[in-house]
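Incident review: delayed structure delivery

Summary: a single-chain prediction request sat in the queue longer than the usual turnaround. Root cause was a stuck worker, restarted by the on-call engineer. No data loss occurred. The affected request and its eventual output are reproduced below so the record is complete for anyone auditing the incident later.

Affected input:
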Amino acid sequence: MIEFDIRLARGQFTLDASLKSEVRVIGLFGPSGAGKSTLLNVLSGSIKPAQGKIVINGRCLLDTDSGIDVPIHQRRIGVVYQDGRLFPHLTVRDNLIYGMRLLPEKARRYSLERITELLEIGSLLEQRSSQLSGGERQRVALGRALLASPDCLLLDEPMASLDVRLKSQILPFLRRVKEEAQVPMIYVSHAMPEILDLTQQLAVMQDGRILSYGDYHEVLTSQTVLPLAQSLGIENVLVVTLAENHPDLGHSVAAFAEHHLTLPLSHHAPGTRMPIVVPAAHIALAKSLISGISIQNQLRGKVREIKFVGHRAVVSIDISTPLLVEVSEKSVREMGIETGQAVYCLIKTQSIRYLVDS
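Output delivered after worker restart:
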């Protein structure tokens, strides 16, 4: 459980953020300068707020009204930054056990062997951090944080500096940590698909405030968040099962609920489950199936909700899971699209991308 209510003023910037959550992973999303990293620094103890309260798993770390302020080294909060911040003069082994050595043996939740197995870094133990690739550095940084046996894990854009290939290495390990670490996590990212691969629970930040928190679809279509979400680009993440590969024709086919999707060619074997990304603005709507058209994917669904921002509309379609579609207000009005109506979502194959390297 994570609970905080924090106020901090620094120059022209004011952080005034509160949240209470029982979920395992919280995604924290917002534009640059929203205060996401500042919030994590306050939670970890590296920045002290003017006023506030922080409770992690029932343990009070900060309560300015009661004079409680647990020192940073006693908060048991693991932090992973986008640059890893490993000690360059130490081996991977010494980086990993740096925090663990400060703990009494009975307080150590994980062994070095367990973490190196979990993150597949056993072969790197005697190397210097300067010899590691970007993906390897981030796995070691994650392992170091876990070996400190944290009560909470804060990940501050851990993949922001990585290319698609390296992200495809890290994401599976983050999923594994989510399932096995059994500690609450806050995952900060500018990339919504990364967040949605780990959790559907989203907190959106802007100008030092948390505008909304809850289920991804409800948050993004709330009146307070929708204008910001549109400006940053709304994207859907669907987990599909690869069914067929057709290298001669340059495409793959995947199953999703009762639907079949034509995708860009994947090099994974049939049966592989994988997340795909579909931008909301790249989906068109039709009131019936269309023949004689190059768009390969026409998914039938039912309109759940319609929200307008300016002259744009965000339509939530139930296709066995909510799918957000961004079209013009003119299209909605002229087509007579209404809540409860059956429609078809038209998606170009080349508008779909894989969350990780296919």
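Verification: The chain has nine helices and 21 strands.
Action items: add queue-age alerting; document worker restart procedure.
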